[in-house]
Amino acid sequence: MDTQKKRQRIFSFEFFPPKDDNAxxxxxxATTQLAQLxxxxxxVTFGAGGSTRAGTxxxxxxxxxxxxxxxxxxxxxASTRDEIRxxxxxxxxxxxxxxxxxxxxxxxxxxxxGDFRYANExxxxxxxxxxxxxxxxxxxxxxxxxxxxTAEADLDNFARKVxxxxxSAITQYFFNPDAYYRFVDACEQRGLDLPIVPGIMPITNYxxxxxxxxxxxxxxxxxxRKRLEGYGDDLDAIRAFGLDVTTELCQQLLDAGAxxxxxxxxxxxxxxxxxxxxxxx
Length: 281
Known about the structure:
Elements: H1 2-5, E1 10-15, H2 21-35, E2 41-44, H3 53-65, E3 70-75, H4 81-93, E4 98-102, H5 119-130, E5 135-140, H6 151-165, E6 168-173, H7 177-189, E7 196-200, H8 206-216, H9 222-230, H10 235-256, E8 260-264, H11 270-279
Parallel strand pairs: 1-2, 1-8, 2-3, 3-4, 4-5, 5-6, 6-7, 7-8
Helix pairs in contact: 4-5, 5-6, 10-11
């Protein structure tokens, strides 16, 4: 953890593009509330196969116009070099200087279209096109990417993204802090020296969390899963327990020297604000 302890702490919050006017109004309210916590940036996700391309751009544009730093996701899958080149120019014109660069989720048909097979190729292209104009975040997987053949192969993939020009990394969410510590130690052994910020998923809905976790390969420890299952449809009990678990995880990570936290907000301010207050941040 030595490489992380020396870093200035960075806090950030993630949104997904809203689908209608009502959802957009709720997102504006969440942004206003969370902006009071002075995050480094608000990231905006990019749907599988480019399914939210326009929504990602418009949401990032709105966040930036409101005086906050937006960090839109850019996905290699389903993107051509010309499309990325145009997008970089558009984001530069908006004053956006922070990007989250990903390979992206495979489309439902499993066929990868576009000019970029892997995230490191997209990072390298952005650096060639834009130099140091953008701060580039990449994804990290403490419990390893679900498509990785081995743990070592996944670390090799992460190293390629870093050496292609990434400035920092945000992890997939996890609930076992040891997975994060071991991942960071493995990166240090490979000479990778950059902030690796833990991704945090507040627990508010067990069925939703289980569905997300099965899809992305994030492990819900058995003791947490069993407690959540035991609460059944008692949403208040699930949220209370979830806040306790997530707050304790955040505190352990910060005490160990993590260089900040990145909250997957699901476009809601309440759970993140509660955890923030409990941590005394």
